[in-house]
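Here is one chain, start to finish.
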Amino acid sequence: MQILATREDYRLAWLAALAITIHIAESALPSPLPGVKPGLANVITVITLIRYGWGSAAWVSMLRVLAGSLLIGSFLSPTFLLSATGAVCALIALGLGKQLSGGRLGPVGYSLLAAEAHMAGQFLTAYSLFIPHPELLRIFPLLMGLALLFGLVTGTIAHAVLTRLPAELDDRSLSRP
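Its structure:
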């Protein structure tokens, strides 16, 4: 039995590979707070959402979390659980944001939604499963503030990429290997 890949399959694989590469590169960066990262791979998720829809963005995001954790060596660890929870929360927020706005949000709006949902999901998971200490609640506003900052940064990058990415690039760059 031969499985035939479609043009969309190649596109998703290419976008997921790009997001995984950014995810791995970002994991090597030092962080002032454990688990706090800019989330630069989310630029690819937001671009995918705007160009190809929520379903494609969900594939890219979840493939990034799964393959990225396998390559980094954090699969099924607490880090993987936090990453997967954050990604699922971000995808839910992106889906609701797209549905409720009728697709009128821009890359910065989607990035802000995703970053805040991602951080809230990770925090709730960490608090409920790993560190159920009331003192953890004291850093929640700081984490949400950092998520706002990182959402602005990734949204600005996504906007810059989208304005420079020609639509016809989609068909030329995704030829079969």
